[in-house]
Amino acid sequence: MGGRKKKTKVCDKVPVEDRISQLPDSVIAEILCHISTKDAVRTSVLSTRWRNLWESVPELDISSYRFSSDVNSFVSFAERFFDPHMKSWVRKLRLSMSKSPDDKSFLNRWIDAVSTRRIQHLDLRLYHFNSSDSILPLSIYTCQTLVHLQLHHAILVNAEVVSLPCLKIIHLEETTCPNEATLEKLISGSPLLEDLTLIRFSKHIAKVLQVRSQTLKRIRINESSAKVVIDAPLLQCLRTVIHSTKNFEIINLGFSTKLDINVLYGHGTTYRTSLIHGILTDISRVRDLDINHYFWKEIFPYSKSGPVPQFGNLSHLNSRFFVTDLEMLPTLLESCPKLESLTLELIDPYMGSKTKKEPKVIFLTVPECLVSSLKLVAFKRSIPGNEGEIELLRYLLKNSTILEKLKLDVYYTKKAECDFLKELLTMPRCSSTCEIHCSFIRKRYW
User: Fold this and answer.
1) Long-range CB contacts (< 8 A, 24+ apart) of 108-111?
2) Closest alpha carbon to 170 in 219, 212, 208
3) pTM (2 decimals)?
């Protein structure tokens, strides 16, 4: 009996710390970035090891929408992250609030606090605030580490000095600016700025906004009340929404700039000839274009009253078309003698309707680009069983001399898919090297 060893009971074993808890604080902090900030705080109850780790989380995503209680309780909860005595790094702050709290000074305190903690990404979304409660402090203009600034429904104050040496991205949406000079200082005070977005920004200030930058590469505009004059020699892409007038002017527009134009079209809307001519002139200068179907609806009658400008530089075209308007495509292709890539996103205006109009796509001559330059054709959102589209495919395959690839998004049932493939394989191809790539999508998302 004396030689028998005593068995150790499970309850007598010394608790072993879990593997995650054994990781360095900095690694755990990065892991906590992948859950909500509210849940990151809750980890403090796990053990004494976790009690204060939430304070080191470098990314804060704080939203009043995640609180069932009122906005004042939310401010009380969030206040712990902006203690002026905390020195931990705040790499990113995303703050979303649904209305003004009773505490009117919280926004100044919080922004001032993160400005001293090496913040890089600041995203503020202040919905349904009283106008005086969403005024931002002056410290936002002199944050030396800020890289990305995104503001929704905020109010900027008059800027005397702007020094944002690291800022590369500015996104201003429904944000009020006291004057045009403040915007100009914000841009000029950001010597590394590459990306600028202005959405419904100018309604309270000038009718003309001047955007001058030696570093800007991408600009997005959605302005209906002001014209934006752009002087940016490195501009690579302009995305804009046009309401009723041309809302942009690019000084020294180069052929390397991509234009992405969305022309809004309301019932009864008619666009002036000057607007159409202005957009056509810009298109004729660029190499890469993304444009929607409403613009082509205006171009077609315009082309009948005079010659359509030749888009001699255009090599990449991405366009949305109503399938009923494909009859305009021959005119378009004849205007693009150097086109290399054509992407068509087809839209069925009669989806769900028994009354349908089949377009007649008639090519009087083979466009020059089909013979000498067109290498890629892509059809997005193909319309099942549409004869006009099938005939267009047949024509492009038969007449495109150097076509290398045809890409199709095919929205067919399984049986119709087999019939379509059989028909596609029988279509004659002018280019012996042309490959056909089909992506079969069972359900259509419009």
Assistant:
1) 108/137, 109/82, 109/84, 110/78, 110/81, 110/82, 111/136, 111/137, 111/139, 111/140
2) 219
3) 0.82
Q: What is the pLDDT of residues 259-272, one digit of tens each?
A: 999 887 654 555 56
Residue 282's identity, in one-letter code, is D
Find the mean pLDDT for residues 148-163: 93
Measure CA 410 to chain center: 25
In 303-428, DSSP assigns E strands to: 316-322, 341-347, 376-380, 405-410
Contact 175, 152 (CB under 8 A): yes
Residue by residue, DSSP assigns 298-315 as HHHHHHHSSPPPP-TT--
Question: d(Cα 152, Cα 261) in Å, to the nearest integer?
Answer: 23
The span from the CA of 202 to the CA of 174, in Å, is 9
- pLDDT, tens only, 20-75: 777 776 787 777 777 777 777 777 667 777 767 776 778 888 888 877 668 888 88
User: Where does residue 90 fall: left (phi above 0), alpha (psi -120 to 50 degrees), or beta otherwise?
Assistant: beta
